[in-house]
Amino acid sequence: MDANQQIRETVTNNPVVLFMKGNPQAPQCGFSATAVQILKACGVNKFASVDVLADPEIRQGIKDFSNWPTVPQLYVNGEFVGGCDIMKEMYQAGELQKQLESLANA
Hints:
Radius of gyration: 13 Å
Number of domains: 1
Number of strands: 6
CATH class: Alpha Beta
Structural class: alpha+beta
Shape: globular
Largest sheet: 4 strands, mixed
CATH superfamily: Glutaredoxin
CATH topology: Glutaredoxin
Distance between the termini: 29 Å
Order of helices and strands: HEEEHEHEEHH
Strand content: 15-25%
């Protein structure tokens, strides 16, 4: 399975997916750590995560898949939401909580 197919399957089969550096228990960059904190603040404690540092093909593939140059990247119900800055803006506006409320503690 190529990286694009693997990414597509991951975002399709999981309601919330965070492509990040490291994992939720041990983020490997500040942006990834912030993204995890935002999800938890929204009540989402269970979500799929993909460590892009573990696979160079996935690391580049996710950027191509979303046409977004940076990681972390959040997907909700198969749709690309954005990176850390967009997550922060949406959280501060109350939009991310609304988008995630049906998935919180699921």
